[in-house]
Records
---
Amino acid sequence: MIAEDKKREYVRRLILSRMRLLNTNGFYGLLLMHAEFSLDFVIETAATDGTRIYFSPKFMDDLSDSELDFVLMHEVMHMALYHCLRTGNRDPRLFNIACDIVVNSNILHSNNGDKNSITLQKYGESMNLAPDGKDGYNYTAEEVYEMLLDNENKKVKQSAGGQSNNNKKGGSRNKTMGEGGDWDDHGKWKDSVEGDFNEDENKEKAKWQNRLKNAAEAIEIRSASTSRGTVPILAKRLIKELTEPQTDWREILSTFIQEEVVDYSFSPPDKRYGDSPFFLPDFNDTDVIIKDVLFMIDTSGSMSDELITLAYSEVKGALDQFDNKLNGMLGFFDADVVPPVPFCDEESLLSIKVSGGGGTDFAPIFSYVKNEMPDNLPSIIIILTDGYAPFPDESCSLGIPVLWLLNNESVTPPWGRIARIKAPIKD
């Protein structure tokens, strides 16, 4: 048994480590907010089962603060990538090494290539390169596994009378870090394979996907300027997939497309007459643009951070789909309106900060448009909301088309065009 004061010391160290990471590596710190911790007297080092992070008391006593930070980053990345559920029929030893290479490579990149960030003093430098010599973050764990398996099979063929059992289950699952040291215990991992997860496992996977997305956006989109380090490469790759807008904005906004053609321009000159002493005009292509779109995001108390992030991603998605040829304004509302800010490209959009948090009222949106924008009325008003508020009379819209983009199936506005996006799974 461990004395209560010793237990409190372990808790204190874990909390302090998480606080350090929130400050120095915010992406990992935010992920760790979803992790639970346990002491385990059976394992010799550290482990995770996808829900909890386990520590041997003796192992934790041996870790410096910086080493503890790395262990937590390493384990929470296994959780976030649900490595614990992806072994399937693969050789556990090789798959464990593959997962560690991917995780360590991303941690190294997040710490600007500082090798100390993936090193335990008593165990040596951790592996971060795939067998082809490239950084592990370029690949999935499965891709690195296939390289490792191919190397193993080549070695077997070169050994007289050797036999390979790499395709069989078995081999030690425990304490695998390949050549980097024996400290990371994968013994709590399951044999599930992608596509064969049960209902609970699929829900857990969806939760971690949302957590990855939200953590990456919190660091990148919301400009956590006090955080050092960067979002891991794999998270950037996943975030692009996970935050892909659900709305076909080209179809929705097709009515509002404007084609602008500039017939002649002296810049650039027509290249067909490059040897001429005269600058001759050239024809420019047609520009398809959308002008004067007003986006209003609901930031009332009923809208969680995840729902607001989802709405924000849709606005960015509209900009992306029109290749930054969309000029508009983005504002926020609860019981009042935060004045909209113009944007014309990704940089100006991402500089607009979220505001709000009170009750919900749609009427102030239309009052603001009427009173503050009479000389430059929007071509369309797009309201991203959960819809939980009384709807004003349609006459308030001043004849401007209104799109209600709702994150649920429960609310149906009495007027205006309606589109729906799927809300993230709640914890």
Note: Confidence is low (pLDDT under 50) at residues 163-181, 221-228, 259-286.
---
Amino acid sequence: MLTIDALQEYGADTTTGLKRCAGKEALYLKLVQKIPQSDSFELLNQAIAEQDLEKAFEAAHALKGICANLALTPLSEPASEMTELLRAHTDMDYQDFLTKINKALDELKALF
């Protein structure tokens, strides 16, 4: 079962996340549990595999937004870094970012 304590151990800034949910713990936890259902994870992985930097930017930017709003630092930090590189159309291997994001997603899912 997902708890605030488990999210703190995961690395989330739950104080900030709760503030953004008007202090409503149940709402915050409900929104966090919806994160893995986001299509953006699959879209990002697919776009990188296809080397479509524009689509990858859109997906990374969406992930950055939803994860940052809920203060899920382990997901938002690599998504944010990746977003800025993609915004600049940096031609590079993004696999390390995908690995970090996918690992953080798996760790989050394990908390449910």
Note: The mean pLDDT is 97.
---
Amino acid sequence: MIRYVEINDKKEWYDLDRHLPENVFDEKVRTKRGYVLVEDEKIIGILRYNLFWDNTPFCTMLFIEDSYRSKGYGRQMMEHWEQDMKAQGYGMLMTSTQVDEDAQHFYRKLGYKDAGGFIVDVPGFEQPMEMIMIKAV
């Protein structure tokens, strides 16, 4: 079952997402910009997003617990999000991944295409190139 994240999900959410600042969690609940995937009464996956340019949904995190990967759950989460965004009237979606991560292949299988990227070389924040990917819905 996939549903919007709720305030009671906070502990389980942070078992999977160590990047979301805690002061932003309540906002994700309030704005319905986070989803949880529940299997056997346990949260096994999360997806969160923001609005890029204040008008384009941008998936900022998709995470499936290790033991549930490669079973179609990531695809289910993305398709659920895509359908929800389309129902809300959005026509384009965005996501990103670092060029050294395998997620780019997963997103391409879902119809996302490369749309550029950027390099973060600020001391203390360095990372491989971030690849932006887009999809029409």
Note: The two ends are 22 Å apart (CA to CA).
